[in-house]
């Protein structure tokens, strides 16, 4: 990665820091981005979202959905059926995270590959160092 070539002063560093802090504040936690990814196929009901995410509790899912709704990434739709049907779907604004999600996915794949490769080479080195 290395340092950027452009000159950075205190003002631009502070602006960058604040922008990253704002982004992390909105997307904090382990569930927001996976929740957004799960809704990329289309609207889902609460239980469908919970099943797609696996280990999330209803209380946490409810909180995360409210946070995403407040930040305009998700819209909650209520249909007057019997019983009432509630679905959650992504807003057009959520598409602004597409590059972020793609970059995180790519980095995560490379990181996992690196760790697996390093563990294999450490295991081989340990096995070679052990006398028979």
TrEMBL record:
Pfam families per UniProt: HxlR
A molecular-function term among this protein's GO annotations: DNA binding
SUPFAM superfamilies reported for this sequence: Winged helix' DNA-binding domain
UniProt entry keywords in alphabetical sequence: DNA-binding, Transcription, Transcription regulation
InterPro entries to which the protein is assigned, alphabetical: HTH_HxlR (IPR002577), WH-like_DNA-bd_sf (IPR036388), WH_DNA-bd_sf (IPR036390)
Transmembrane segments: none
Superkingdom of the source species: Bacteria
Domain HTH hxlR-type residues, every copy: 13-116
PANTHER family: TRANSCRIPTIONAL REGULATOR, MARR FAMILY
Name of the protein in question: HxlR family transcriptional regulator
Lineage: Bacteria, Pseudomonadati, Bacteroidota, Sphingobacteriia, Sphingobacteriales
């Amino acid at each position: 990665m290395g340092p950027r070539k452009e000159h950075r002063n205190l003002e631009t560093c502070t602006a960058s820091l604040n922008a990253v802090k704002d982004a992390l504040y909105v997307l904090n936690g382990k569930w927001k981005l996976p929740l957004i990814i799960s809704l990329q196929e289309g609207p889902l009901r609460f239980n469908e979202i919970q099943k797609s995410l696996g280990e999330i509790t209803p209380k946490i899912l409810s909180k995360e959905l409210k946070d995403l709704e407040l930040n305009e990434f998700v819209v909650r739709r209520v249909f007057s059926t019997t019983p009432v049907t509630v679905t959650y779907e992504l807003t057009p604004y959520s598409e602004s995270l597409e590059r972020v999600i793609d970059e995180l996915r790519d980095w995560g794949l490379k990181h996992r590959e690196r760790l697996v490769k390093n563990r294999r080479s450490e295991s081989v080195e340990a096995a070679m160092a052990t006398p028979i």
